[in-house]
Amino acid sequence: MILIGIFVYGFIGETIWTSMTDWGGTGALALEPQKNFVGLENYVELFTGFLGGNFRQDLVNAVYYSVMLLVGAIGLGMFIAILLDQKPKGEDVFRTIFLYPMSLSFIVTGTIWRWLLAPQGGVNVLPTYLGMKPLTFEWLSSQSAILVFNWQDILRIMVYIASFVLIMVGVFVLRKDVNRAMKRWLVPGIVLGVAVWLFGDVLPDALFMEEDHGFNMATLGIIMATVWQYAGYTMALYLAGFNGISQDLRDAAMLDGASQVGYYRFVAIPMLKPITISAVIILSHISLKMFDLVFAMTGPDNAETGHPALNMYLTTFRGNEFSKGAAIAIVLFLIAAMFIVPYLIGQYRQRGRR
Amino acid sequence: MKMSFAKILVVLVAALVLAAPQSVQAADLKGDLEIFSWWAGDEGPALAALVEIYKKQNPGVNVINATVTGGSGVNAKAVLKTRMLGGEPPDSFQVHAGQELIGTWVKSDRMEDLTPLFKEMGWMEVFPEGLIKLIGTDKGIWSVPVNIHRSNVMWYVPANLQKWGVNVPQNWDEFFVAADKLKAEGVVPLALAQNWTANHLWESVALASMGGDKWDALWSGKLAFDSPEVVKAWELFGKVLSYTNTDASSLSWQQATDMVINGKAAFNIMGDWAAGYMTVTKKLVPGEGYGWAASPGTAGQFMFLADSFCLPKGVKHRDNAIAWLKVLGSKEGSDTFNPIKGSISARIDSDLSKYNAYLQSAASDFGKDHVVGSLAHGVAANETFMGGFASVMEMFLKSKNPTAAAKACAQLAKKAGI
Asked: Where in the sequence is the signal peptide annotated (chain B) (predicted)?
């Protein structure tokens, strides 16, 4: 307990402290570097400062990347698990094949996929074996982006998202308790949304100039590699879950006239909600920490595929901006906490109810 | 007859006496020597040749080659910092001469003063004065330079240019004319690789756009980074970028050079380690297999960088490290290392007959050109600026906004104390 206290929470505290100092610049590497307390200046700089542009891009990349990875890995993993749950011939062999990528380190995965997705090789030359023209899609070096938004509007966008979440929760609660849903969620949500829509101009711009960020097509290659690596893992999770559902239940569902699709849709997958939640948590924090794969596939200083963890490393150890690097680390830590803390609270509540 | 015989004897004895302490001293050295660098792959053999000389002189020392790969030392520098902060310095590490050494390590008071060594070995006379200024401050001299590289060189294959009917452009306007012609033929006019090579290209373009005096003024803080001259340099750079390959970010510099060799691209701007790569690895004859020129608009300017090795404070095998530095600074070491590495010697008395045609021409240019420091390779600015500049470049490659880039650089310069 004491060790955890020092080596986990102590160091988190130390990093928070460092992120509020001005440790950096010349002389940063001295045996006794000068550190002065500057409060939240580093954070303000990261989110609204002129030089934080690539951090913001990396953050946007990370968000898109996490969402795509979750959808991809869980969707594909579940799909394979359902196929294998049908007990096809050679199930063991397939299971091994699909789980195998898990055993590789990211740096190996990254190197393999870097070759596969090289502009003039790998996947792109496949059609030539059939006598067709090679593909020209630039998996890792494309510079086009979709779903672009302007960082100036970030406050407005945040409020819109908040109002959207409130309304969604409201709709969800509506079935159980109409009164509470209206009072607590729906009305505030709608009011918030309308208010921003009408008076959004009052909110200050985050930056003094336009700065566009979006989902870069070049991250597709990285997402593919990660999905490849983790689909097998979620498959294993789901397969274990499916096997845990008793045969009686399945027979009962079939007897009641459920089709195969119906069985999974209404019986099996809802029963595996805890597995889905843990998969989401594990994958989301992996995607936030992603470093080696991006480094191996597209290298440092690549705005199209940049990632906050990589940015932190470069800021800290190349630019000697230790305090700024610490601030990036804390931002990542807080985002990861956003995923994990609700889960932990949910777990404790369940245990309390029992 | 007798007299002369006696004289010869005296000379022989004197020579023996002089040689003896050195060999005794050399044989005394034991233990390890850890050399930290980013020279691997194509640059590895040059380092190996140096280590071989060292081993011959000091057979008792076990040399540990702690190489961390990555172009321009991107990865190595990060590993090095972790080790230095952790109080575990390598016995000697590679560092670019200039602000990377002074602004980072000397300012932090982590280096040992090598002035006594320079005096003992007589190096004050054999290294050019300008270079000693770059590796020294008023408090001492901080590293031993092993080579001089030129950064503003444009490479091409003469036979290919003839085939496409293109001349070597003297300035960027001529380049754009040639480039349109090349594009029409389906050839990439200028091969580019991952992002640090964009920094590399930027400094050549900016030098051409501003001229050597303004370049110097920029780094001494006399010319603002958001002044019209610099914005113009960014604009030109943006235009040059539009003639490069779109898959740049996924290539290494060697792959970009390969594009020129195998005729996919016409030109490539890279430091003269590319000459080493093409001569040693690709077995091309300089002047026939590949040709070179100063990058457009920079004739008469020699943008240089120098690799050097230093002695951190508190190393475990200090004597072994000093013996290593002695090898590096010696004429034998320098003239063994540089022809393989593809660079010229930092010493003014080097034996030019050992160098190939390209290096001889570089050495003669170094003697007469206006010498300016490279940004991408740590001479012009300290690491705070360089680290930030990489991010600015990252955003520029994406947004192509010259004004924003210039303004960001101005903020960065303020922070880095330029």
From this structure: 1-26
Point out which residues pair with B291 in neighbouring strands.
Answer: B156
- pLDDT number for residue B9: 57
- Which class in CATH covers the domain with range B26-149+305-373? alpha beta
Residue B382 with chain A: CB contacts under 8 Å: 26
Is 70 exceeded by the pLDDT of residue B292?
yes
Q: Provide, rounded to the nearest whole percent, the portion of chain A with pLDDT above 90.
A: 19
**CB nearest to A29's CB, from B110, B196, B393:** B110
Give the contacts of A191 (CB within 8 A, at least 6 positions apart).
Answer: none
- What's the order of all strands across the beta sheet hosting B370-373? B149-150, B301-305, B370-373
* Domain ranges, ordered by start, for chain B: 26-149+305-373, 150-304+380-416
Nearest Cα residue to B395 out of B238, B232, B239: B238
Report yes or no: A302 at the B interface, CB cutoff 8 Å: yes
End-to-end Cα spacing for chain B: 70
pLDDT, tens digit, for every residue of B196-239? 899 999 999 999 999 999 999 999 899 999 999 999 999 999 99
Res. B4: pLDDT tops 70: no
* Identity of residue B259: M
Chain B: nearest CA to A297, how far in angstroms? 8
Which residue in chain B is spatially nearest to A56 when comparing CA positions?
B395
pTM for the full model? Answer: 0.83
Instruction: Report pLDDT digits (tens) over B69-108.
Output: 766 677 788 889 888 888 889 999 999 999 989 988 998 8
Average model confidence (pLDDT) for chain A? 85
- For chain A, positions 228-247, list CB contacts with chain B under 8 A: none
- b (16+ CB within 10 A) / e for A62-73: bbbbbebbbebb
Do you know the residue count of chain A?
354
Average pLDDT over residues A241-246: 88
Please give the distance of CA B256 from its chain centroid, rounded to a whole number: 18
Closest partner CB to B196 (pick from A211, A301, A321): A301
> Is residue A313 within 8 angstroms of chain B, CB to CB?
yes
Residue written as tokens 């000397």?
A: B106
Q: Is some CB atom of chain A closer than 8 A to the CB atom of B196?
A: yes
Average pLDDT, chain B: 88
Name the CATH code of domain B150-304+380-416 (choices 2.30.110.10, 3.40.190.10, 3.30.70.2860, 3.40.50.10490). Answer: 3.40.190.10
pLDDT band at B410 (very low <50, low <70, confident <90, very high): very high
ipTM (interface predicted TM):
0.79
For A315, the token pair is: 């800021």
User: How many angstroms separate the CA of residue B29 from the nearest CA in chain A?
Assistant: 29
The residue of chain B nearest to residue A322, with distances taken between CA atoms, is B384
CA distance B92 to chain A (A): 17
Q: Considering CB atoms only, which of B77, B105, B394 is closest to A318? A: B77
A 8-27 residues with CB < 8 A to B? 24-27
Contact B383 A299 (CB under 8 A): no
Is B415 in contact with B384 (CB distance < 8 Å)? yes
- Is the pLDDT confidence value at B169 over 90? yes
How many other CB atoms are there within 10 angstroms of residue A4's CB atom? 9
Q: Whose CA is closest to A298, among A120, A149, A126, A119? A: A119
